[in-house]
């Protein structure tokens, strides 16, 4: 600390408290109690060379604030965190929202876990309303995404805000990027089915950030017909307005496809960050998590949703190039099987 | 659709297609936008691009003159600011708003509406 006490450096001492408010007088008292420090520089409240902080921690229970702080911290300011982004990107003021838009705090955490830095090429294969793209772009990533939902991608899905009857003109993922001056980071979105290959095989993303459908608030599906794979071709006259039929996309198959996709399309060292829904009763760390030879699990964080279900925020890093082009068979993941069925069935339902 | 997206896109979703690249662009409406230039990103992205496909795409939307047909024509491209800015322009500032992408193996067309390509197949094609 001594190098910062020299007379050439102007300084300021700031007092901050957690879970308690102090009056100006109380703060000044504390600042003056440090007059014993051998600081030789002059005070500069506006633009000091050095800022010292006194932090007083009064716990986390605002109903039980102690007289004296539990802990004291004193140090020199080095850098600010970016907590203010949570407010800045809040969904409350987001231009275009979907049913399952990820809240700002979680999407920023995901972008952090994915180690997105300025210049990262980022992709979300279940992009929805683009809430993950916003945080990735905020950290400097160049973002793109895809979704099977044509209406969502075009900003024409039904509005989700309770008092909004009709979508405003121009609501879209692109408008969200414009809202926060992140348009320069927006590469684009497509309407596409994740179950089908899309990219040139040598395409590499620095990070894949996504919240796949769990089959609860949005359906999991891919293009196909209940009649099976070999069906009569659609008549020419119907083609221009035909909306492709969809079949169920099994969640475990989806997870297998996601990990395969990440293993193939991430740069070495690149990260896949995604959510996995689980039934809490059946969760087993060994058997419930999707695995891939080329991906290593870095973090596993649980968010409890209800007494019987949670979702896990999983972060995986690519450590190996895949050798074979063959798809690995989907693993039987305990606790994800028939997640949708169990979610609506409640914990009383037993197999 | 920006040309960067087009450069990475294939029609491998179609049954029977082995390469499906590059997709042929027929553009009805092209728009220019402004995008902040970033040297480092542009240098990195050039390494990821299929240059031939980029030049052909640029030509199909009337921007062939912005970039050389061969990347090897430029020495030390990573230090050539004028060149990098032109690449940035072609790759991020030219957008196809309405048009079609055509699979080079089957001729199947994918529409681009409002700047968004629709790569969904019909259920009889999967």
TrEMBL record, chain A:
Domain tRNA (guanine(10)-N(2))-methyltransferase TRMT11 N-terminal, residue spans: 7-83
UniProt GO MF annotations: tRNA (guanine(10)-N2)-methyltransferase activity; tRNA binding
GO cellular component: cytoplasm; tRNA methyltransferase complex
Repressor as UniProt keyword: no
Major location category of this protein: cytoplasm
Enzyme Commission number(s): 2.1.1.214
Domain Ribosomal RNA large subunit methyltransferase K/L-like methyltransferase: 93-217
Membrane-crossing residue ranges in chain numbering: none
InterPro entries reported in the protein's UniProt record: DNA_methylase_N6_adenine_CS, RlmKL-like_Mtase, SAM-dependent_MTases_sf, TRMT11, TRMT11_N
Substrates-to-products reaction catalysed: guanosine(10) in tRNA + S-adenosyl-L-methionine = N(2)-methylguanosine(10) in tRNA + S-adenosyl-L-homocysteine + H(+)
Coiled coil: none
Broadest EC class assigned to this enzyme: transferase
Example GO biological process: methylation
SUPFAM superfamilies for the chain: S-adenosyl-L-methionine-dependent methyltransferases
Keyword Transmembrane helix: no
Keywords assigned: Cytoplasm, Methyltransferase, RNA-binding, S-adenosyl-L-methionine, Transferase, tRNA processing, tRNA-binding
Subcellular location: Cytoplasm
Record's function text: Catalytic subunit of the TRMT11-TRM112 methyltransferase complex, that specifically mediates the S-adenosyl-L-methionine-dependent N(2)-methylation of guanosine nucleotide at position 10 (m2G10) in tRNAs. This is one of the major tRNA (guanine-N(2))-methyltransferases.
Self-association and partners: Part of the heterodimeric TRMT11-TRM112 methyltransferase complex; this complex forms an active tRNA methyltransferase, where TRMT112 acts as an activator of the catalytic subunit TRMT11.
Family (UniProt): Belongs to the class I-like SAM-binding methyltransferase superfamily. TRM11 methyltransferase family.
Name of the protein in its database record: tRNA (guanine(10)-N(2))-methyltransferase TRMT11
Biological source species: Cloeon dipterum
Lineage start: Eukaryota, Metazoa, Ecdysozoa, Arthropoda, Hexapoda
UniProtKB/TrEMBL annotation, chain B:
Alphabetical GO biological process terms: rRNA (guanine-N7)-methylation; tRNA methylation
Alphabetical list of InterPro entries matching this protein: Trm112 (IPR039127), Trm112-like (IPR005651)
Pfam families: Trm112p (PF03966)
CDD domains named in the record: Trm112-like
Annotated SUPFAM superfamilies: Trm112p-like (SSF158997)
Domain of life: Eukaryota
Record-level Gene Ontology MF annotations: protein heterodimerization activity
Family per record: Belongs to the TRM112 family.
Protein name as catalogued: Multifunctional methyltransferase subunit TRM112-like protein
